[in-house]
Please model this.
Amino acid sequence: MAIEVRIPTILRTYTDGAKAVEGKGGTLEELIGDLEARHPGIKDRLVDGAGLRRFVNVYLNDEDVRFLGGLETPVADGDTVTVLPAVAGG
Amino acid sequence: MLTISQDLVDRIVAHARADHPDEACGVIAGPVGSDRPERFIPMENAERSPTFYRFDSMEQLRVWREMDDRDETPVVIYHSHTATEAYPSRTDISYASEPGAHYVLVSTREEDKVEFRSYRILDGVVTEEEITIVQ
Model:
């Protein structure tokens, strides 16, 4: 068992085109670190110095992690993490 | 080039007029690979602002999953400008994140005239495209 991470089109350049990849970790931050080890460059698209990037939505199962614990959100085998770039502009 | 039905154009414009002076936004989904906008999905502007829009994150998850289940993609992503021309702003360009989408801009700055234009936005480069309206 692992954590399934669903990757949006715009980030599939980091995953050889894969729509979903697997990862592991006890928190979202550890999971992103694990992804970075196999998909270098992806971390920088998800986080910056202040935490999760403002215009990237990350969901744990059915919840936006911003309403959970952000990067500290606990994750476990069997969870699904979905990444969606925010649709926004001016 | 964007090919879109008159009915969908009318619905986008009606949504933009209804939410004026705030910006309106939404998606038109279509079958993967078809480049054909078919299913109109008006979205909530979580910012409720005359100068900014952002899809509500939970609504976006629901809609994106539904498109996934139906083998659809966001063929059109539209929003309105309420005081400026229907051309992508700097923030529109920097946050554009669906490389396959037609970005439709509508301006409601004039009450009796509609500006309806479509663009590709890729890696910070904006390319306006022709629109063919079909019945």
User: Anything to note?
Assistant: Helices of chain A lie at 28-38, 42-46. DSSP finds two helices and eight strands in chain A. Chain A has a mean pLDDT of 96.
